[in-house]
Specification:
686 residues; alpha/beta; Rossmann fold; N-(1-d-carboxylethyl)-l-norvaline Dehydrogenase, domain 2; six-stranded mixed β-sheet; 19 strands; 12% strand; globular; binds (2S,3S)-3-hydroxy-2-methylbutanoyl-COA
């Protein structure tokens, strides 16, 4: 096996190369190899300086996250980096790809940094519930100042090579071959006989008011998360403590963050999002897609495809709808140009990939057809029957339905094995989640092609079975049901929303209903015959629609909306709820936030367990990925199933049984899977 780290003399420069695919993470082998090569370089009198570079796609993209759950092996990264900083010979980091986390910290411990023009540099540890634990909070502010260091570390967002040069993080952009450029700089430093040890530099504290305002803004954005607060404490220590003490403070805070359940949850999601969508089939490369339906979903899907460089034929039988869809897409790209996020050449290229027509025949040359028309089973089946006669024999047919039966849609064609669901989430060009629906006849190649396309769009595909609402919306119905019952029983929409948003949900269920449009659920429920026989079921939402309160689009729903979209409580809604509760004979009472959170979250867990047992969900981790990426479940809680596992399945079952005693078994019978696991001790996650 080739060594993870090697030292090669290039003239009088020792080039240390890390070669540890896929991302050169600083695993134990890499750390041990770095130490060995550093010592060899220092002992070799022929070498006056060194370069640290990486083979493969990227410079070190971080510490090896897989190691965090295991006992650490020496050398510790932070100690190794201090050893590198104290080197008797100048060391220059040669940065390409994504120099992230421990990788950027390695570069900070070097005496200079040269970057490829396309390199990106960042300290994303807070996205894993961690803080930079190998000197990042102490060395970065010494190069870029406290304010920029707070921005980079608390947001976790990377900067470009050009930005890095502008702030002093990087010394040079490589105009020639990267390692050569780094070696030349290393020799220059050696000849000069002096080089900067980052840790010896002072920290430029910046304007205190600006720094405090930036920190407060970033902490507000990450409300509920511990890592940004710990990172800020370490950064502030850099201003007042000598570097050795600052590094000790950082280490303590890093170890606290590594032990924090929030970090375990975020690391769980990191790997879960990379494990979804695995299927045996052979993916076919998709170059031309026909999108049927130019509504909000269709135009969003078209934008996502165009952004990925795919040719798109947008087709809508209604010329007015087609015109609106085209305008929506054009406005989207013009907005990017206006905000300087798209240059005119890119703008032109994107629009050149898009054609629009009312003629279904335009779908004849597509590799894949994605239907995103009105959510009506008859409309969809008729359309797929027509498509079957038009589409090329090698084309795949996908429906974007959010809950309808994909088997029934596939049965309208003579090619059910080439029919699948691709359930995008709105806005389709922004939301990362795609549920890839496996209908009864769907072939493995169809699924693999759907998964590969989703990843090409930069999305996260999750394979799900064909059942009403698939996984996400089936769980959303259980969650929404409890929200609706809580309203009848005495909670207000704003209390429910605030309780769940304080718990970490991105947006409360009633605000979400208003955003999506209450009439969408209203129509869907009327088209279904499998709903519970319970007059209370979504009764508040239905009553709002019957009074013309459709949500944000009609200016009022659960809330009143100002023209700028801001929302405020509306006493009329309480009057409406009270009238419905009275009519239904529901006794009203004061409800506390804890009950709101427990009932809504346990409804998710119980339904998720049921979907796991029936195979509609393939894995507990898949459910977590769906809810973290499609419904705003707090990432620092890992997802509904991770959260249940952390609570203890015995506790979860007992809580559900308590709810059954109060509210009856209709909605609160524990899923058999939960009962079995609680009794056997089997874990949801290995
Ligand atoms: N450790 C272990 N495995 C990693 C990894 C890491 N840091 N980063 C990626 N992988 C694996 C990933 O699981 C996948 O494996 C493969 O590499 C390709 O990844 C001390 C404590 C680098 C931008 O947070 O952001 O340093 O599925 O599918 O889309 O202060 O990976 O193929 O088996 O994502 O091209 C800080 C995390 C760590 C960066 C590439 N670093 N990684 O994206 O490929 S903590 C990070 C990423 C730390 C120090 C602290 C991305 C990427 P498999 P991929 P990609």
């Amino acid at each position: 096996m080739s060594e993870a780290v090697s030292l090669m003399a290039a003239g009088e420069v020792g080039v240390i190369t890390i070669d540890h695919p896929p991302v050169n993470a600083t695993s134990a082998a890499v750390r041990q190899g770095l130490l060995r090569c550093l010592e060899e370089l220092e002992q070799d009198a022929r070498l006056v300086a060194g370069v640290i570079a990486c083979a493969g796609r990227t410079f070190v993209a971080g510490a090896d996250i897989r190691e965090f759950g295991r006992p650490p092996e020496p050398p510790r990264l932070d100690e190794l980096l201090s050893r590198i900083e104290q080197s008797g010979k100048p060391l220059v980091a040669a940065l390409h790809g994504t120099a992230l986390g421990g990788g950027l910290e390695l570069a900070l411990a070097c005496h200079a940094r040269v970057a490829d023009p396309g390199a990106r540099l960042g300290l994303p540890e807070v996205k894993l519930g961690l803080i930079p634990g190998a000197g990042g909070t102490q060395r970065l502010p010494r190069l870029v100042g406290l304010e920029r260091a707070i921005d980079m570390i608390l947001s976790g967002e990377p900067v470009t090579a050009a930005e890095a040069v502008a702030t002093g993080l990087v010394d040079q952009i490589a105009e020639q071959e990267l390692v050569t450029a780094a070696a030349n700089l290393a020799v220059t430093l050696a000849r000069a006989g002096s080089w900067r040890r980052t840790g010896a530099l002072p920290v430029e504290p910046g304007d205190a008011a600006r720094v405090d305002a930036l920190a407060a803004r970033l902490l507000r954005r990450s409300r509920g998360q511990h890592a940004p607060e710990r990172a800020l404490e370490a950064l502030r220590a850099a201003v007042i403590l000598p570097v050795a003490e600052g590094l000790q403070r950082e280490r303590r805070l890093f170890e606290e963050s590594r032990a924090d359940p929030q970090s375990a949850a975020l690391r769980h999601l990191f790997f879960a999002e990379r494990s979804t969508g695995r299927t045996e089939g052979k993916a076919v490369v998709i170059e031309r897609v026909a999108v049927l339906g130019a509504g909000t979903m269709g135009s969003g899907i078209a934008i996502a495809l165009v952004d990925a460089g795919i040719e798109v034929a947008l087709i809508d039988s209604d010329p007015a709808s087609l015109e609106r869809g085209e305008a929506r897409i054009r406005d989207h790209y013009q907005g990017l140009v206006d905000r300087g996020r798209l240059v005119p050449a890119q703008h032109h290229a994107r629009l050149a990939q898009l054609s629009a027509s009312s003629d279904l025949q335009q779908a004849a040359t597509a590799d894949l057809i994605i239907e995103a028309v009105f959510e009506d089973p008859t409309v969809k089946r008729e359309l797929f029957a027509r498509l079957d006669a038009i589409a090329s024999s090698s084309a795949w047919l996908a429906t974007n339905t959010s809950y309808l039966d994909v088997d029934a849609i596939a049965a309208a064609t003579a090619r059910p094995e080439r029919v699948l669901g691709l359930h995008f989430f709105s806005p389709a060009n922004i939301m990362k989640l795609v549920e890839v629906v496996r209908a009864r006849a769907t072939s493995a190649d169809a699924l693999a092609t759907g998964v590969a396309l989703a990843r090409k769009l930069g999305k996260i595909p999750v394979l799900v079975g064909n059942a009403t609402g698939f996984v996400g919306n089936s769980m959303l119905q259980a969650y929404g049901r409890e929200n609706q019952l809580l309203l009848l029983e005495g909670a207000t929409p704003w209390q429910v929303d605030a309780a769940l948003e304080s718990w970490g949900m991105a947006m409360g269920p009633n605000a979400v209903l208003d955003l999506a449009g209450l009439d969408i659920g209203y129509r869907a429920r009327r088209a279904r015959s499998d709903l519970p026989d319970d007059p209370r079921f979504f009764r508040v939402a239905d009553a709002l629609v019957e009074q013309g309160r459709l949500g944000r689009k009609s200016g009022c729903g659960n809330y009143l909306y100002a023209p700028d979209g801001s929302r405020q409580p509306d006493p009329k809604v309480i009057t409406l709820i009270e009238a419905e509760a009275s009519r239904l004979g529901v006794a009203r009472r004061s409800i506390d936030d804890a009950e709101i959170v427990e009932r809504c979250v346990l409804a998710l867990v119980n339904e998720g367990a049921r979907l796991l047992e029936t195979g509609v969900a393939g894995a507990a981790a898949d459910i977590d990925v769906i809810w973290a990426n499609g419904y705003g479940f707090p990432r620092f809680r890992g997802g509904p199933m991770w959260y249940a596992a952390q609570c203890g399945l015995g506790e979860v079952v007992a809580a559900i049984q308590r709810l059954a005693e109060i509210h009856g078994p209709l909605y609160w019978t524990p899923a058999p899977l939960l009962m079995r696991m609680a009794q056997s001790g089997e874990a949801l996650f290995s």
